[in-house]
Every structure is written in C-alpha cells, then in structure tokens.
Amino acid sequence: MSLLSIDRRDLVSEAIGAEAESIVYFYASCDRQYLYPKIGVEGTMSFKDRFTSNITVPMVKQIQLFADLTLANEADVAIISSTSTDVPGWFVSLVHQFGPVASDEVAQSCQQLITFAE
After folding, report:
1. Cβ proximity of 12 and 4 under 8 Å
2. Could you state, in order of their start, the residue ranges of all structural domains in the chain?
3. Chain-centre distance of CA 4, in angstroms?
4. Which among 3, 56, 84, 87 has most CB atoms closer than 10 A?
C-alpha cells in the first residue's frame, strides 16, 4: 500500500468525505517539531504545514482532533512496543502534555491505560 501524493487529496475526499479528509490532511501535514512544543502552553497556538511551510492559527477543534489522533496512535504504539505491562515513560509524558487539549473521552481513556499499568 502506498500513500497518495499531496496533489491527490481529491481522491481521499471522494472516498471518505471532505470533512474527514480535512482532518486527515491536518494530521498528516503537521510539522510536529514546530507544533509539539506549543501543545499545552498558554496563548495563541500556531500550526506549520510541513508540505507548504504555511503557518496558520488552527481552530480549537482542529487541535483537539489532532491531539485525539496523536494519543490514539501513540497508545497503540506504546502497547505494541512495550515488552512488559509498564506504559513507556514517553507515552505518559505525551498524555500529560496532550491530555488537556484532547477530548475528555480520549484523555480519560489514556489516563486509564496509564493507571491500569501501574
């Protein structure tokens, strides 16, 4: 399976709908080195598109969905890559940082995962 090039977003939109494609693009285009230090910090958050280098101010809902997808993806990685019942420290740190901007359901689920492993 290969990823589509950025100029084929229309195919993704046709397959999953415009709203879902917008969420997928936001997640995939995120310059994580730029955004991660801003997550959980007071003040206006800016977002850098790694494909275009454009910097914008995202809507709160976009950041929440990004945090939800990030935590869900990283929870999966943490569970699969862990060789014990311990949750990796990097995941605990990520939950503490992203939890306040994630949806309540995702933040609570991640916190339960950490608590269960303790």
Report:
1. yes
2. 29-117
3. 20
4. 87
Q: Are 54 and 93 in contact (CB under 8 A)?
A: no
DSSP per residue, 30-44: B-HHHHGGGTT-SS-
How far is residue 6's CA from residue 86's CA, in Å, rounded to a whole number?
A: 38
* Chain segment 54-106, per-residue pLDDT in tens: 999 999 999 999 999 999 999 988 888 776 667 888 999 999 999 999 999 99
**Helix pair angle (60-81, 104-117), 10° resolution:** 20
Q: Residues 91, 49: contact at Cβ < 8 Å?
A: no
- How many CB atoms sit inside 10 A of residue 47's CB? 20
